[in-house]
Design goal:
By secondary structure, this protein is mostly beta strands.
């Protein structure tokens, strides 16, 4: 099974307490659970949404986040977790927690009506020195190949085309996501979510598209993984909260090693 690199959470399981697009000066609270069956939760990252980057230094309220009964983020400013905040400084918060544990968010925004969601990071068995080193080959060959999907605005379940990893280029040893939007900038893009699946297994679920723009400065950027030639992959998106006439472009970059047979054991 492939690892679940990121899962985005923005509501209770029923979706009745959402914090992706709350109204101005709104308080909200939701409770959810760490996903079961994908290993331990190893990182937390708040993601501020529904905000233009020009307003990212405005007072946008605060939030607190609990894992079980323990508060891990206590009264943090929402503006601190805009995608472009503090380049090179903001990293996911490290912790180790099993699946099934409860999580909850207390949220209060300001007059600017920003939103907030959480990215959960899970164990990645492919995050090994050998696989990381395989991306650093100096062989003259196709090293990075990109695939693109375009997703219309205002659609709950946008399905993208399915592709296959090329045969003869080597093994995929890392993936990277990049997002763009044709108009409106960061605000509408931060209201778009996407999921990427490999071989029918999700490796990213409901991640916030704003976190993968050219303005975004938070880690991680490149995820080590091992995907063999011929494997299929696809993407879906939830753009239902993007009510502008904007098309989201999702790009998945595949990084290859120098094993053209695609059979190397790591």
């Amino acid at each position: 099974m492939y690892p679940l690199l990121i899962q985005g959470i923005f509501s209770n399981p029923q979706g009745t307490q959402r914090t992706l697009t709350p109204g101005a000066s709104t308080s909200a609270r939701w409770q959810n659970n760490i996903k079961v069956g994908r290993g331990n939760l190893i990182g937390l990252e708040p993601v501020t949404t529904n905000i233009s980057l020009s307003n990212s230094s405005v007072d946008n309220g605060t939030f607190s986040y609990y894992v079980g009964s323990q508060i891990v983020f206590d009264s943090l400013p929402n503006s601190n977790y805009v995608a472009a905040a503090k380049p090179g400084v903001m990293w996911p918060l490290n912790l180790v927690q099993p699946g099934g544990q409860s999580v909850s968010l207390n949220f209060q925004n300001g007059a600017n009506a920003s939103g907030l969601m959480m990215h959960h990071y899970f164990e990645n068995k492919f995050n090994t020195p050998a696989i990381i080193a395989a991306r650093q080959t100096n062989t003259l060959k196709t090293r990075i190949k990109a695939y693109h999907w375009d997703f219309s605005n205002g659609v709950k379940l946008n399905s993208g085309a399915q592709f296959s990893v090329p045969v003869g280029l080597g093994n995929v040893v890392a993936v990277e996501v990049f997002t763009e939007i044709n108009t409106g900038g960061f605000r509408p893009l931060s209201l778009c979510l996407f999921t990427i699946s490999v071989g029918g297994t999700s490796i990213i679920e409901d991640a916030n598209a704003g976190e993968f723009t050219s303005e975004a400065t938070k880690a991680p950027q490149i995820f080590p993984i091992l995907i063999r030639p011929g494997e299929t992959f696809t993407a879906t998106a939830d753009t239902s909260d993007n009510l502008t006439l904007s098309t989201m472009k999702l790009t998945l970059k595949l990084y290859f090693d120098d094993d053209l047979t695609g059979k190397k054991i790591y």
